[in-house]
Design brief:
The protein is of the alpha+beta class and about 200 residues long. About 45% of the residues lie in helices and about 30% in strands. The protein folds into 3 domains: about 40 residues; about 40 residues, no CATH class; about 110 residues, Tetrahydropterin Synthase, Chain A (2-Layer Sandwich). A 3-stranded antiparallel sheet has the order 3-2-5, with helices on one face. The protein has a 3-stranded antiparallel sheet with strand order 6-7-8. Strands 1-4 form a two-stranded antiparallel ribbon. β2 and β3 form a beta hairpin.
Length: about 200
């Protein structure tokens, strides 16, 4: 009488299937782990530094180059430290109460040694949070000390005065004002009319 081996065969297939499932699961886990580890490589460009946070705490400031940090644990907050440019139209008032729009271009850089404190204060929003407001304040305050004619004839002096004012206020944050250039001054309509040559009556 032949024995029925079907239950044994089914059990063997089930065991083999379970082993295959475990093997595939292990491979998937290993692959995911490998991808996670590889994804930890970070590149900081030559124009940046990176303020590194781990569990919300700053652990280092990294210069340009290739670095490694665990994905989801180490966060690289990059700050541009090369020369940056801001070009804006400012609405100003002269000492003789003329409303003047000025196109002004500002160049600035970040002091690398103060990148950490700058990040802690502004969380990488320093351009909008502190640079632009202080530039606007310096430009408006300085312009208010010049007449409109002086604004036109002493443009270089005005630019240097604004530079000195903004530089003194921003240096404490590690923000270095390189230069402030007055690109264009839009003369008010009433001033243009006043200085336009009158037609000669024959």
């Amino acid at each position: 009488m032949e024995k029925n081996n079907e239950p044994n065969n089914m059990l063997a297939l089930k065991v083999k299937k379970n082993k295959n499932v475990k093997l595939i699961s292990s491979l998937v886990v290993l692959l995911a782990l490998a991808v996670w580890l590889i994804s930890g490589f970070r590149i900081v460009s030559a124009t940046e530094v990176a303020v590194v946070q781990r569990f919300g705490k700053i652990v280092s400031v990294e210069p340009s180059g290739i670095h490694y940090g665990l994905r989801g644990i180490d966060y690289y907050n990059k700050i541009q430290v090369n020369q940056q440019n801001i070009r804006t139209v400012y609405s100003t008032t002269t000492s003789d109460i003329y409303k003047v729009n000025q196109v002004i271009q500002t160049q600035y850089t970040i002091d690398i040694s103060k990148a950490e404190s700058l990040y802690l204060k502004f969380l990488n929003t320093h351009r909008d949070s502190i640079i632009k407001p202080i530039l606007s304040q310096s430009i408006k305050e300085t312009t208010s000390k010049f007449t409109l004619e002086e604004l036109i004839s002493k443009r270089v002096e005005l630019g240097q005065t604004i530079t000195d004012s903004a530089r003194a206020r921003l240096n404490v944050y590690g923000i270095k004002i390189v230069s402030v250039e007055i690109v264009n001054i839009e003369l008010p309509a009433d001033y243009k009319q006043a200085v336009e040559p009158k037609p000669v009556v024959q």
